[in-house]
Amino acid sequence: MKILFATSEVHPLIKTGGLADVSGSLPIALKTLGHDIRILLPAYSSVLEKITHKKIICRIKLAGYPEEINILEYTLPNTTLIVYLVDAPTYFNRPGKPYTTPDGYDWIDNADRFTLFSKIAATIALNQTQIEWQPDIVHANDWQTGLIPALLATEESRPGTLFTIHNLAYQGLYSYDTFKHLNLPQHLWSMHSMEFHGQLSFIKGGLTLADKITTVSPTYAREIKTSEYGYGLQKLLRQRSVDLTGIINGVDYSIWNPEDDPHIKHNYSHDNLENKVLNKRAIQQHFNLPETDVPMLSFIGRLVDQKGVNLILHALPKLLESPVQIVLLGSGDLYYEEELNKIKQQAPDKLALLIGYDEELAHLIQAGSDMLLMPSKYEPCGLNQLYSLKYGTIPIVRRTGGLVDTVIDTSPRSIKHNTATGFIFDESDHRSLTAIILKANHYYTDKKDVWNQLIINAMKQDYSWEISAIEYVDLYEQALIF
Asked: What confidence tens digit (pLDDT) does each residue in 183-199 have?
């Protein structure tokens, strides 16, 4: 099949979260299966700064836009995967991150920016460019591309469409005045299309008008049909249940594998765990922590409520009373950054904190930590727990979304059958988090045989993209029926 994969970020060119990892891995797996897949991405300034050997393959003139838009062709590093870059400098060639200003505020014209991107995607999808390549399937991702299935829905000879929800909480909501300003077809302003309680909802365009819908884990696919996780869209998602499928995200083990990871100090496997301890020493040296053999817990991710950072913050005073070291890497809400910094100053020998993101350090933390904390309020799939499994870093997770789909709780039964891979707690409160951490610490300290078996069980898990890619192909084939 010919597949156009439309996304607002792709690793290693631009990344703010898990969408970039998926966009940089799933297309490669699909191409390996023999499909002609091409990525469509905005030409952000930070992307243009990174790439070389790009070429203009066509120019597109859209109605209502004064300037022609260049489409650049680029090959993703270390692959033969084609990336089309939408080069519209007024909309994308600016400082800051993909969706926010350098000060961290949403760009006020995000609706304009991703409407343009969606219109370009639709133009390519309908073979109305000089590229002379029409996809059989358009795979759109999250609210930034939700308009694409809506624009294609009424077109003749269109490709099939699939829309993936990576996080339903981010919906792309704008006013009716914005809708009018965007010069979109009037029929899209309907409760059966993109109107949502008097607002324009970009994500609803994908949910109502894509031929097939996926989200990134089976449990999250069930959760978003409930009022607790549906963000007002649960009724619509229940109505579309037959077209909604949960597919677990995969891992690119060519990037995340402790046996040959170039970012860690000492490579290792489940047959050579001695070197894992040496990576722990490397972390301790990096953060000037005492080089002792106490349990090391880590957190890598956004410092926001969704990730359960409020639970970690309130659990820290109790945890820091015990023999433990905690390493945190991430950025997010200023309140959490400041409060964690205060605690770090009070316990510099037990708590390490780096505000920001460092890819190499993230790999080292995965390799050297004993446990990874993911106490998320909700988690569509989660990738860090999948990385931690491969690195033998035992995940401590809340029972939600993809976390419960990928981590097997430690219990007498799972210990007996050598299937346990982590620790799961239920209630989203800091006391429950503290209790499960203390339980895990007990296994680490007093039940070394069981602990070592947990590491081996975890490292033997296989969440490679090939399995998930086959499931996507099956859905693409179903979408072609329409």
From this structure: 999 999 999 999 999 99
